[in-house]
Structure formats: C-alpha cells, structure tokens
C-alpha cells in the first residue's frame, strides 16, 4: 500500500501542471468500445483507474497501446460482453462499460458494482434508463444481465442528475434507433468532454453541460481522436493546498470555468486568484475567513469531490464553518483522521460537519479511507506542525498521477514510502 510522509509548516511557493481528468477518461475509454475502430486519446492520466480500464478493454478484446499519456485503443476485435468481476469490484465506475456494450451489441453481463466508503452507490437510474430503451434484465440479486434486440431511442427523465447514469444513457443512445432525449441530466464538465469525444467519432450528440441532452442514433461510428480535459478536482485539491499553507502557487493548463464553483468559495474566504494565460495563480497571504455554510451540489454547485479537501482547509481557519455533504451519505471518513491531528469537527447526522477552526493542526499517523479523503489528509499534513504520515496511499494513487512530484514542485515537503 505505501504511505506519504509530510513535513508541515511550509508555505507552498511554486507551480504545477494539471494532468488529464480521471472522471473524463473513464467514460471516454468506455465510449471507445462503441466505435469498433481505433481511438487515439491524448492527455490520458497514468492513474490506477486508467490501468484498470485498460484491463477491461483488453478483456473485452480490444488492442490497447499506452505510453503513460497517449492511449491508442482499437475496439474492432471486441468479442465479449461480460465485464471482468475483479475490475467491477475494484472500480465501481466500470459500470460505465454497460452502456457501450448494450449500445453496440445489445447485451451486457456484469456483477453488480460494489458500494464503497462513500455510500451504497446504487445504479437504479442507469438500469431504469436502459429498460426504457428496450433492455430486458434477468432478475438476479447479484448480476446485471441485460439483452435487447435493438436499443430504441426514447425520452428519459432522470429524477436525479446522476453523472454515471447520464453518461451510460448517452453511450447507449449513440447507435440506438431514433432519438434519445435525457432530461434532468447531470451538467458536469466531464459530460461535455464525453460529448466531445463522441462527436469526434461521428456521433450525433448535443446539449451536454445543460440538463437536456439529445442523442440522434447513427448507423456506425468512425476512428476518433480526442484530448482529455484537465482534471478540475486535482486542480481544486492543489488550490486548497495553496490556501491551507498561505502560499503563492501557479497551476498551468487549467480550465477556469470548470473550477469556478471552488474558486468562488476561496475568493469569499479572502484568497487572491487571477489568470495568467491558461494558468491560474493563487495567493493566500491574508488571514482567511470561515464559510458559514458550504453545501456540495451537482455541477455547477460546489463539487462533492472537493468536500474533504475544503473540510481540511476550513479546519485550520479560525471561526465556525459548516459543511453539508449532499451527494453521498457517508463521505466523512476523513473527519476522524483529521481529529487525530487536532481538528475540531462535529458530525451531525451523516452529512453536516460543524467545524471550529484551530490555529494549528499537529502532525499524526493517519490513514486514507478513500481517494479524496486521502488527499485531504495530505493537505492537513502540509499545514500541520511536525510530521504527518498518511497510510493507504493506493487510494490517492487512483486519482492523482504523482501527488508527491506535484506537491514538491509546488514547494511542499512530502515523500512516498513504499510498503513493498
Ligand atoms: C461520479 O460518480 C464521479 N466518478 C464521482 O467521483 C463524483 O463524486 C460523482 O460523479 C458526483 O459528481 C466518476 O466520474 C468515475 P452519481 P457517480 O451517479 O457517477 C446517487 C471521485 O472521487 N445515485 O452522480 O457514481 C448516488 O448514490 C469520484 O473522483 C442513485 O441514487 O455519481 C449518489 O448519492 C467519487 N442512483 C449520487 O446519486 C443511481 O442510479 C451521485 O451519484 C446513480 C446515482
């Protein structure tokens, strides 16, 4: 597993480049199965979730070449519609391959994706959408086995703007007969990126980024090439690192609009932010103000994937802040770990955190329980007095290509110790 060792107390002063977005590349790799041709995908982040997706692609019969940045996949040879159990249990977002397999072959067989520490993570909205498009599922408690002669385009009204369900239904609609209209769709930037990739493959998709997405089914797709968007959550994590250490940092190749829901909170806290070309500069040399109420919401609200990182930041800002986690019923495992470092946070129910900011956290031995919670503990370690070790580094490696190199280039004192 390995651990991070962080020496706190240094103001960050440096710059970092933001790599491609994990949550854009996973649905785009699934979409590559639809084309039956070659796709060239650039700026593909070398994270464990990408490696897991490559295993799934090869299991299905695709050829894949990956140099750590550009991924070339050819799905002409796909000869299976069963998802590998190990991948589905390790990476629940592998369910995104269902839409592509149903869309191209009219069938899919997979274990139910596991829940995780964030909550039980149901997929009822995905299955409801597929059923409306003509997919019949066997009645099984632990497997998803679906078949359809030919998927039919139809209108699907999502009762919740689920990112995964929106993406899965988009994939199922690309080669379907007729038009699929998704209302109540999620508006995350990663969905706009998926639309960009699909269009590069000849699909007829519009409306991504709004709550209504229209997919006109086409007969076939063509070879595609696409460059993945910068990861707005990685960018937000490093902005929080700059803020928690009262530093002065520069993040290159960032899409400022994607990250606006987080930068507006930082600006309200008294952080200075400005653009220099495609870079975003942060300066946090003033005393920061607490946030009376920070609620996570679907985009363009404050992203749940930055909740843990901002909870850690607010734990070091004098005064009372309240954070409300509205997307996942159990996204709070980082709070007990922050408490080991001296944070004063009360959890009300499952989703309301009352934070009484302290002037200084102290180093401690803590452990990541999930991806973003692990990143939050590293941020806390950067600001704490003394040394913090963050165990279970494998969680963080799912979503950050090399957080050690990035934090070091931002001026932080961190190293990784392997347990192998
Ligand atoms: C995506 O997960 C992201 N993962 C998550 O990022 C992110 O937190 C989430 O969207 C919200 O933005 C990827 O893109 C790979 P949802 P997803 O479907 O698609 C409920 C990270 O740290 N729901 O929008 O699974 C669900 O239980 C990860 O990078 C249903 O009830 O998120 C949850 O409470 C963590 N029924 C809420 O909706 C369904 O059928 C949001 O889920 C589907 C979802």
List keywords for this structure.
alpha+beta; single chain; four-stranded mixed β-sheet; 420 residues; 34% helix; globular; 14 helices; binds ligand EPZ
Average pLDDT taken over every residue: 96
Low-confidence stretches: none
How many strand segments?
A: 23
Give the structural class: alpha+beta
Q: Please give the radius of gyration in angstroms.
A: 21 Å
Apparent shape: globular
- How does the major sheet shape up? 4 strands, mixed
- Catalogue the ligands: ligand EPZ
Query: How many distinct helices?
Result: 14
Approximate strand percentage: 15-25%
Helix content bin: 25-40%
Q: What gap, in angstroms, lies between the N and C termini?
A: 7 Å
- Strand line-up of the largest beta sheet: 21-22-1-23
Characterization of this structure:
- By secondary structure, this protein is of the alpha+beta class.
- It is built from 14 helices and 23 strands.
- It is globular.
- The chain binds ligand EPZ.
- Residues 22-23, 26, 93, 119, 121-126, 160, 162-165, 186, 188, 304-305, 327-328, 371-372, 399 line the site of ligand EPZ.
Concise structural overview:
The chain is α+β, with helices and mostly antiparallel strands and 420 residues long. It has helices at residues 22-35, 48-60, 85-90, 96-105, 124-132, 163-173, 189-200, 232-244, 256-269, 307-314, 333-339, 371-383, 393-397, 403-409, and strands at residues 3-7, 13-17, 38-42, 63-66, 71-74, 107-111, 136-137, 143-147, 155-157, 179-183, 204-206, 212-216, 224-227, 248-252, 272-276, 279-283, 294-295, 319-324, 345-348, 352-357, 365-367, 387-391, 413-417. The protein has 14 helices and 23 strands.
